[in-house]
Amino acid sequence: PSQEIIATVIGIASALIDNVPLVAATMGMYDLTEFGTDDRLWQLIALCAGTGGSIFIIGSASGVALMGLEKVDFIWYAKNISAGAAVGYFGGIAAYLAQTQLVSMLAPPALLVADVVSQGGALPM
Q1: Is 68 helix (H, G, I), strand (E, B) or coil?
Q2: Average of per-residue pLDDT across 52-58
């Protein structure tokens, strides 16, 4: 499967499971020498895992706090908030993918900051 699909599934899983162990498991799936710490893959995983947790109230620490402090229950959140959160989640992924595609089309490959930095080089002045 493509990296975009894997990142999207990780984000959906983070709606039910804490995102920290999910990202830690993902770090074991990909070699950091092949995918540097500023690689597009890690940016997308961070976006997906960070925002996917808001699809369900139990997927984020702030959602669990909301349940405790404001007595919002899971069913109410699922009925009233989850659909909007899912639309925002998938919209954010689409915007990120479109942005990276646009940047890669407009900028010469040698000038992409992420590539230069991940290769340990200095930015041209």
Answers
A1: helix
A2: 93
Report angle CA 121, 124, 125 to the nearest 5 degrees. 140
- Phi (first) and psi of residue 119, to 5 degrees: -90, 5
Kindly state the tokens that stand for 8: 């999207």
In 3D space, the residue among 113, 103, 121 whose CA is nearest the CA of residue 39 turns out to be: 113
* 80 touches 73 (CB < 8 A): no
C-alpha 108/C-alpha 120 separation (Å) is 18
Which residue has better confidence, 1 or 83?
83
Q: What is the pLDDT of residue 122?
A: 54
- Has residue 33 got a pLDDT over 90? no
User: Whole-structure pTM over 0.90, yes or no?
Assistant: no
Residue of 17, 100, 23, 116 whose CA lies nearest to 63:
17
H-helix segments, the chain? 3-13, 19-29, 40-52, 61-70, 74-80, 82-106, 113-118
